[in-house]
């Protein structure tokens, strides 16, 4: 589901993509379906709808998914504005522009030389394997396309899943540092941030519904930004506050900051 940049809720200013990244040792899964559904319904009532991803086209979603690695969304927005102004936000234009010039345009997003190479690598992949057609690319079965995306230079699990879900409407759950922190604090994981295990946790316990995955991820990011900070989580005001398991609230307070680096 795409939303126009004018109408969409923007990603939170301090939203930070965590690729390249991604295990969590899981507790028994039986109650998780109920728990996750309850969390989703509560957050939807309190905060939704989020209307992600803020982009004008699927191609722009993909560019944003690469640019947001290790930087805030506000920086990505500045880079995207440059690309739009220079009329480079199409496959053909991005193929034609030189890598150094592309790097200058996306400079606000940080790591701009590496990211320019990543964008170029994606354009080569799309042209070589799918004749330049995103529609063709997204007709590929989800698991197959995911594997192929992960082979592209600079595309890790979070970026691949963002591309699949937000640009291609494939039912794959996007996991990020916010998701890990919330799960760990609620005792739903042991706190080891292993990407694939957390993705499987969501996908095993929720129906493969694109709108649900889209909205749930966006809601978790919103919670991470506004309440579930690494330091001093604001559980009293957080919509998920009522669901902290007994005894965990004081342990969360005592544990101090939770910094999460997601491993593949
Ligand atoms: S702020 Fe507290 S209640 Fe909210 S998600 Fe984080 S740990 Fe849970």
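Sequence proposed for the structure above (264 residues):
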């Amino acid at each position: 589901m795409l939303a126009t940049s004018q109408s969409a809720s923007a990603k939170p200013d301090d939203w930070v993509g965590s690729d390249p990244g991604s295990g969590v040792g899981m507790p028994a899964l039986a109650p998780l379906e109920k728990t996750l559904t309850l969390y989703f319904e509560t957050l939807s009532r309190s905060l939704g709808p989020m209307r992600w991803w803020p982009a004008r086209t699927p191609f722009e979603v993909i560019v944003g998914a690469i640019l947001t690695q290790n930087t805030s969304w506000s920086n990505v927005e500045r880079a995207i504005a440059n690309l739009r102004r220079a009329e480079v936000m199409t496959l053909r234009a991005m193929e034609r522009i030189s890598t150094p010039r592309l790097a200058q345009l996306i400079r606000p997003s940080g790591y701009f030389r590496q990211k320019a190479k990543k964008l170029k690598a994606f354009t080569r992949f799309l042209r070589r394997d799918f004749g330049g057609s995103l529609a063709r690319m997204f007709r590929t079965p989800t698991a197959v396309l995911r594997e192929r995306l992960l082979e592209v230079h600079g595309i890790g699990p979070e970026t691949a899943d963002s591309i699949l879900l937000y640009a291609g409407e494939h039912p794959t759950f996007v996991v990020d540092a916010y998701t890990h922190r919330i799960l760990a604090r609620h005792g739903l994981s042991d706190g080891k941030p292993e990407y694939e295990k957390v993705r499987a946790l969501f996908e095993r316990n929720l129906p493969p519904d694109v709108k649900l995955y889209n909205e749930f991820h966006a809601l978790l990011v919103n919670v991470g930004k506004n309440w579930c900070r690494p330091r001093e989580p604001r559980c009293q005001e957080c919509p998920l506050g009522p669901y902290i398991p007994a005894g965990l609230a004081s342990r969360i307070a005592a544990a101090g900051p939770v910094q999460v680096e997601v491993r593949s």
